Amino acid sequence: MRATLADILAATKSSIIVSCQALPDEPMYCQEMSIMPFFANAARQAGSKCIRTSSIRDVVAIKEATGLPVIGLVKRVVEGYASYITPTMKEIDELVEADSDIVALDCTMRARGDGSTINEFIAQIKEKYPDIVLMADISTVEEGINAAKCGVQLVGTTLSGYTDYSPKTDGPDFELAEKLVSALTIPVIAEGKIHTPEQARKMLSLGVHAVVVGGAITRPLEIARRFYNGIK
Questions:
Q1: Residue 47: burial class (beta carbons within 10 Å; 0-12, 13-18, 19+)
Q2: pLDDT in tens, 88-146
Q3: Cα dihedral 85, 44, 157, 153 sign
Q4: Cα separation, 78 vs 111, whole angstroms
């Protein structure tokens, strides 16, 4: 069963959404079973009211283990597609079947293997699943505005620095978040390189609805590397 967008927004206002993800080439990935529900339960006990996760098995396992709403996505490399966050309708179908409360997808302007534009893809999704809640992962203000015009309900700064044309920074893209808040009437979710409570608090002060934190909480390899690199 899916939570309503209104309930999710009420629960996550000015708060942290914890991202619990592990890809097959990462140390915290286990072939035999998903261990992400353990991270998600820790996040729930700390106060998180929503979890963001990748892969169908983790969406299902986390919803069952925590009872929390989930922002689901599928990371998959598809030939001809520059994006890998929920790139095609196949991943959308899988996430809907898994009862993802919100479906996140790459809404950048990069190449799509079938020749469609992101606007056309969003229109296809909304025609097939008119009640679906979409979170647009974008890298620029223009992409955020475009996604909002296409009818997505949430815009996230997730891909800032991960496209060839967005700024490469060591920390969060505060400027992008601030500009999106000013330009959009739908909620903006700050995500990407938010490593400290101070950075999260600054993002919230800019008016974003909520902040997604993953690497600083649920990715031990990234956390360890940050410490080791910090003492060099």
A1: exposed
A2: 999 999 999 999 999 999 999 999 999 999 999 999 999 999 999 999 999 999 999 99
A3: positive
A4: 11
Q: Is the dihedral of CA 163, 168, 171, 174 positive or negative?
A: negative
* CB-based contact 207:184 (threshold 8 Å): no
The pLDDT score that the predictor gives to residue 1 is 84
Place of tokens 């990715």: 219
What six digits make up the tokens of 92? 């959308």
Contacts of 201 (CB under 8 A, 6+ apart): none
Region of 113 please: left (phi>0), alpha (psi -120 to 50) or beta.
alpha
pTM for the model stands at: 0.96
Please count the helices (runs of H) and the strands (runs of E) in the chain: 9, 8
**DSSP codes, 149-216:** HHT-SEEE-TTTTSSTTS---SS--HHHHHHHHHH-SS-EEEESS--SHHHHHHHHHTT-SEEEE-TT
3-state percent breakdown (helix, strand, coil) of the chain, nearest 5: 40, 15, 45
Do residues 98 and 72 make contact, with C-beta atoms less than 8 angstroms apart? Answer: yes
What whole-number distance in Å separates Cα of residue 88 and Cα of residue 105?
A: 9
- Dump pLDDT digits (tens) for 12-45: 999 999 999 998 889 999 999 999 999 999 999 9
212 residue type, one letter? V
Pairing of the two strands 154-156 and 210-213: unpaired
